[in-house]
Amino acid sequence: MAMISNLDLIRRVPLFSMLTTDQAQSIADSVVKRRFKRGELIVEQGTKSNALFILLNGRARVLTADHRGREVILAVLQSGDYVGEMSLIDNEPHSATVRAEVQTDMLVLGRLEFARCLPESSSLSYGILRGLVARLRNADRQIESLALLDVYGRVARTLLDMAEDEKGIKLIRGKVSRQDMAKVVGASREMVSRVMKDLEERGVIETLENGSVVIKERLTHD
Known about the structure:
By secondary structure, the chain is of the alpha+beta class. It has eight helices and twelve strands.
């Protein structure tokens, strides 16, 4: 790898295939090479790395885990793939962990250099990028829920995601459709109704006359 210039490496990455020579050279001057050992974390869920990681060779797994350590593999990354872009675009922590499955060589592009490649933050295209990242984060959470949580946990997480904080009270405005909830959590309407009824009987949630739902106690999805 030492005999190949950064520009040559950049040109091999599909992400940068449409760059002009000057743009590619600017990226090449900014990246650094880094080698990750087998099992080493490249990014960690819940943290920020402030960099874009581009795989040159090797293999890495994108995964998420619950508090018991149970893992779900969301994707397997190979040469030409990249990670960290979501966090750089919306400035939120990583939604998943990425671990090197074998020895993996990467190019690392810092936040400032990456930002120079983005459209203006006030532009429509940047707004669309942020919207796409939000959808991807929601998709990751949905996959994690379906794989790691039982129906009770999935209903609890969905209720928390739907709730708004109003003067210290978590409130879901409007009627919560059991049918729609069932489609979101991947369960039958009858099962969702049983879970909701149990939560109401335990005093965890309260359904108001207009159909809105108040979350009265700590609702856990673990």
